[in-house]
């Protein structure tokens, strides 16, 4: 009894870091392994980047982060990534619907090929897309008469981002569709609902959180894409140069400060946008439970 009454007072006198260390030691081993793994693989690398960026004077940091070429790359990277994620939000949902609701020849082959962007090296993906969408390629030659040029333009960057982020939407929506009972749809039809009303009021609400999750994952993947976009774009500043390639160019020029500042801004903007998307997901789940 006496020992338990003395322990809190002695804990309060200890330094904060020691209190945290004792709390970690008392945790179950699953928590300790999880915290250790996250610290090594996620928290420490991010903290190291912020620490290196903090050594730069604020005025110089702001000058590099808001330079015209940096602002142009943010625009190309984030706008094109968001555009690609939204496109995949629509067509990825449609592909998942077809794979779940219909049986057709080579269904397993097509289902497996959806994961191809996961396994294919990004450089190979970029080379393939640049060839197919070039002016002499299978698809690019069909678009040239309409004045549409894909390879080595910003549109090509968007095509590459759509390609590499497609599986995220399909694989997040597909399990939800598989668990969805078709009896609810048939009940809606029996009550006189049209196909559009059934989709809008019965099918879409439970699908919405998974679609948003897929869009968020696809957006994150597209923002960090490098291998395919460096091949299919011309990497011209103020045209189709993306932020990850600008960072690599800075490193090639031994401009480590510029690379760190642009990387930090990219990280902060990505975290901010993912936070916004998570808030929208929470709102969607709350709307679904009503």
Textual characterization of the structure:
The structure is a single chain. 79% of the residues lie in helices and 0% in strands. The chain has 15 helices and no strands. α5 packs across α12 (195-223), α10 packs across α12 and α12 (195-223) runs antiparallel to α15 (256-289).
Key phrases:
290 residues, mainly alpha, 15 helices, globular, disordered N terminus
What Rg do the Cα atoms give? 24 Å
Largest sheet: none
**Principal-axis shape:** globular
Instruction: Give the SSE order as H and E letters.
Output: HHHHHHHHHHHHHHH
Strand content bin: under 5%
Report the span from N to C terminus: 50 Å
Count the DSSP helices.
15
Helix content: over 70%
Structural class of the secondary elements?
Answer: mainly alpha
What is the tally of beta strands?
0
- Weakly predicted, low-confidence segments: 1-8
The average pLDDT score comes to 86
Task: Quickly describe the structure.
This protein is an all-alpha fold and 290 residues long. Helices cover 79% and strands 0% of the residues.
